Amino acid sequence: MTTSTDPNKKYLVIKADSHVVDVKDVRAYLEEIKKHTVQYKFLIFDFTDVTAIPHAALRTLTFAVNFVNQPNTKVALLANAFIKQAVSDSGLDKLISCHDNLESALEGSASQSAHDRAYLTETINEAVKMALRVVSSTEVVGVPLIEEKHSDLKHIELGAIVGLTGITFRGTLTLGMSKHMFLKLMSKMLDHEYTDLATEIEDGPAELLNMILGHLKVPLNERDLGIVAAIPTTVRGSNIKIVPAAASDSTFVLNFNSEFGDFYVELTHYEAIQVAS
Hints:
Layout: E1 2-6, E2 11-15, H1 23-34, E3 42-46, H2 55-68, E4 74-78, H3 81-90, E5 97-99, H4 102-136, E6 141-147, E7 158-165, E8 170-177, H5 179-190, H6 204-222, E9 228-229, E10 233-236, E11 250-258, E12 261-269
Parallel strand pairs: 2-3, 3-4, 4-5
Antiparallel strand pairs: 1-2, 6-11, 7-8, 7-9, 7-10, 8-12, 11-12
């Protein structure tokens, strides 16, 4: 085993020195990985000279990748077609991206991130529109404004937050709006005019976020993300800022406007999202 690094690009390459990778080799890779997961956020196994890898070694490699599959860390494999097929047959391709060479892996990481971001933005956008259409026949106006930071919309008084987990994803989905917008939305949804919060609508933000999540999970899980959600929690206050407790890898916000007012949906994730094409 040999290693090479690029501190500026934050990647570590672990190259197999033999033509056959066995369990002992993979365990050695894992010990090397443990030394570098904080410093290097892109780990690359170079198996370009490998011609065979037994099933037992693949199982151990799966364990190693699961160890690496933590906040802010991506994993790639450089290999020939035969090894790529073995990785695919084992199901490991859901956790690791396969490439022909280092240049392809680095380019693939950048292009995959852009692709995933565009796809998620459009999918969240459609999920929000569908949820509002269902609950109140309301159409969201215009294209959402996307920001790479926590929402700074003013007069946020009601909202909801839910934790998400998946095969290559861990994060939160957040909804925030003004009390005025919420009351108008509930009034239209329930065909009853509300001028203040009432018991029967106090969990409305969580219910609305749950509907958005329901429309969001279907297309994401069709692409093998395996998203599982907790139960949304309603948040109330004056000029509140709903921020997840943990520091995130990436945050982006979709700011919407509707006939009732402005609101936002925010996705914060702690691990690399890899959306299958």
